[in-house]
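hiii so um. not sure if this is the right channel but i have a protein structure encoded as tokens and i wanna go backwards to a sequence. like what aa goes where. can anyone help
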């Protein structure tokens, strides 16, 4: 989808700082980091959210988590939080599935 921000990042049309990629997913740093490590892992295919990804390409949901774990390990961190904001009221602003990978500082609970 040419009007989708993350499709344009996946294609390379919009630059990003990539930290990992596989045949199915791309990981890049969030432009507005909320923690010392803040990476987004996105599928190459366009789907609106993680639920749609689970229906369309279930193995890619696993790959998002595996790549997220690898990015955390590469950064030298051990604890991390994965966040799938899903739907406007939950804070989703980009409607191409993505997981936030946050690490490098204490993270409070519950989230806002
Ligand atoms: P959401 O709010 O949908 O869960 O997360 C979208 C994320 O995309 C936000 O954390 C935001 O900072 C990030 N973001 C928005 N535009 C860009 C961009 O052009 N490049 C990068 N690397 N991240 C972006
Ligand atoms: Zn997209």
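sure thing!! here u go:
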């Amino acid at each position: 989808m040419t009007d989708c921000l993350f499709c344009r990042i996946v294609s390379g049309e919009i630059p990003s700082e990539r930290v990992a990629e596989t045949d199915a997913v791309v990981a890049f740093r969030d432009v507005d980091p909320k923690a010392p490590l803040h990476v987004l892992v996105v599928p190459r295919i366009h789907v609106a959210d993680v639920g749609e990804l689970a229906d369309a390409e279930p193995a890619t949901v696993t790959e998002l988590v595996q790549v997220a774990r690898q990015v955390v390990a590469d950064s030298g961190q051990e604890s991390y939080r994965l966040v799938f904001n899903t739907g406007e009221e939950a804070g989703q602003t980009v409607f191409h599935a993505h997981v936030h990978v946050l690490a490098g500082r204490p993270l409070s609970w519950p989230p806002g």
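oh and The radius of gyration is 13 Å.
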